[in-house]
Amino acid sequence: MNIRSQVIAIAKHAKRAANSLARLSSDVKNRVLQGMAGKIVREMDSLIEENAKDVDAAKRAGLSAAMIDRLTLKKSTIEDMAQGLREVAALPDPVGKVTSMWRRPNGLLVGRMRIPLGVIGIIYESRPNVTVDAAALCLKSGNATILRGGSEAINSNLAIVRILQAALRECAVSEEAIQLIPTTDRSAVREMLQLEEYIDLIIPRGGEDLIRAVVSESKIPVIKHYKGVCHVFVDASAERDMAVNICMNAKTQRPGVCNAMETLLVHRDIAGQFLPFVAHKLQDAGVILKGCERTKAILPHIENAEESDWYEEYLDLILSVRVVNDIGEAIAHIEQYGSLHTESIITTDYRNAQKFLNEVNSSTVLVNASTRFSDGFQLGLGAEIGISTTKLHAFGPMGLEELTTTKFIIYGNGQVRT
Amino acid sequence: MNIRSQVIAIAKHAKRAANSLARLSSDVKNRVLQGMAGKIVREMDSLIEENAKDVDAAKRAGLSAAMIDRLTLKKSTIEDMAQGLREVAALPDPVGKVTSMWRRPNGLLVGRMRIPLGVIGIIYESRPNVTVDAAALCLKSGNATILRGGSEAINSNLAIVRILQAALRECAVSEEAIQLIPTTDRSAVREMLQLEEYIDLIIPRGGEDLIRAVVSESKIPVIKHYKGVCHVFVDASAERDMAVNICMNAKTQRPGVCNAMETLLVHRDIAGQFLPFVAHKLQDAGVILKGCERTKAILPHIENAEESDWYEEYLDLILSVRVVNDIGEAIAHIEQYGSLHTESIITTDYRNAQKFLNEVNSSTVLVNASTRFSDGFQLGLGAEIGISTTKLHAFGPMGLEELTTTKFIIYGNGQVRT
């Protein structure tokens, strides 16, 4: 069978499975998830064995230590995966919830009921735990999943999906509910992205290049975020210690993630006092600062920020700093250079807090809190399949509800249209 | 300026306008809409004059009488357009509504606030009233619009948009909020569909070929429906007069629209009595019937339904008829041949009503009511920009809310992530 027919067969099976998954009771879905958790722990040794093949190949291919670290499955990683499955089992099932219902003048009772999206394709890089996470969230929300992991994790992913499918079978659920594209051939992705007849949504997770390639080739709707250039604006009225604390957390607590601060905007009225103070702390934590002209007038020894720096997602201990005249200039900067991800204002001024919340149209906008809270778990969604900076369907962190849509349900008693 | 730069300039202007539109008060938006309504009536004569150029060209080009009818602006059409504008002004503004808010254990107050999508591109065929409708709904929901109408209506559309822009200017709103691609060159659409940096959503309205071409070329998310193959299932327990009444309404009240019935499914236990009765009425109204074998055993003189007929959106006085063994077979038929648009069951059996509502995952599912109610106005959305059979973002009839998304707003008092 060539790759094209192989991918089409997988997609057809997924669609067939989706129809029955949509009707599965929460009980059965939860039993499957618990079964998966048990199995993954019981088969830990064989999983680690398969993973070792990938790790060896990665070492021979000269992958970076950081990448090999992300690829490696340890006892603790596998226990975390199992725990993640149990947590998804414990979440409320969004399917079938009637979110609102109203009566029309002609007596029709009209409501909206949550239903699964259908078939979700996940295209991702390296980390094998995404395989478990994504499959679990899609299953709980009643969707069939087609997984396409990175080629460097192919043995690990095959082993994981074998375990997940065994758990499906044990509960008499079709193993077609969770499938992995079993080849590392790149043309398989291209074929997959054409199958709008069978696949309802593509979620790419990985670097900006991967995501841009997927968007440009896909006929299927894609939910994506290219990058997170997150801003903190320290207003003139900010409480200094709170501002420093939030800046330190947003920049240094985990600099390699999309909700870390990349640009700091400071109101000119406090820049003279605030910048030396916060710069000292940031530099102590190893952060390299790049400043605008006015910042450099206060911190003469830091690097110069080029125009391109304002667009940069460093994902590293580097921070761009700009002094602005007022909140209007801060908002205009975010509009021009931002990525619609996450922005925070530190202020004690009521009007500025409300202005920032109302006028900044990024997916998450905060007052007096760290950008690091832009995360499905932290916001109370209970889970996270990804963060969307596409304004369509879901904008911001996506939990189980964001893997569903609603249909209109209508109760009548013979109404016809006149 | 070549077409590419022209389209890019329009898109950039639209994005700039979108930022200020997002902050416009409901009052100003409503004043603009009222101003448009007044102006369109006052400038009726010049509008009819420009429209006459299109109508003359269409006649010379030999377009069908039906197409010329849809293209022609009469005094009454223009008055209806003005009335439509006033009705949109009267609708509640979705922007800024906080749809829910909850407190996290760490004291963060997390909510979701409705915001406009940004820039919406509408690609449509012939009818010039779509120009007014679409622009009004996008404006009310705080979005900038880029309109690309059919080439046969270019003079009418240019004249309409000139009037709408004048009304924007009178209220000091940027005329970039509503723009028309001023050329009929087809490459303009191709260019437009590449501009994901500036345009947030494409809504194509027209025939299936137009929509398929847009989906296949677009890098921008598209909300679409290809076709409406709507089903009515008459269950064994159906009340006969209600079933006949609904079938007649769903098929004949307006056969050329997407929510008209295209396939009738009848439970075998009542087929012998029901089919002759309903066939007589349908045939009296000019409907041509095409039946499966079992239908033809009861109605021997009707045409044979081929396999391809079950997929067909006739948009005409033609109806496919199939006898099914039970509700399960009816649902399976809809799953296999349906278009996810609208389906109705006629029944007096409680369990079958609930089973149909729960298991049929089309965008609108009805019990004991005509498929013709699948319409934004009829469902109480107040307006309709289109109907989506894409499960992403919006599924089914789309009103003003469906032209918005939500952002997370978060009130903190210094929280950082640990």
Name the descriptors.
4-stranded parallel beta sheet; 43% helix; 418 residues; 2 domains; Aldehyde Dehydrogenase, Chain A, domain 2; Aldehyde Dehydrogenase, Chain A, domain 1; homodimer; alpha/beta
Q: Could you explain the architecture of this structure?
A:
The structure is a homodimer of 418-residue chains. Chain A folds into two domains: 233 residues, 3-Layer(aba) Sandwich (Aldehyde Dehydrogenase, Chain A, domain 1); 149 residues, Aldehyde Dehydrogenase, Chain A, domain 2 (3-Layer(aba) Sandwich). Chain A has 14 helices and 16 strands. In chain A, the strands form four sheets. Chain A has a seven-stranded parallel sheet with strand order 10-9-11-8-7-12-13. Chain A is globular. The termini of chain A are far apart. Chains A and B meet through strand 2, helix 10, helix 14, strand 13 and strand 16 of A and strand 2, helix 10, helix 14, strand 13 and strand 16 of B.
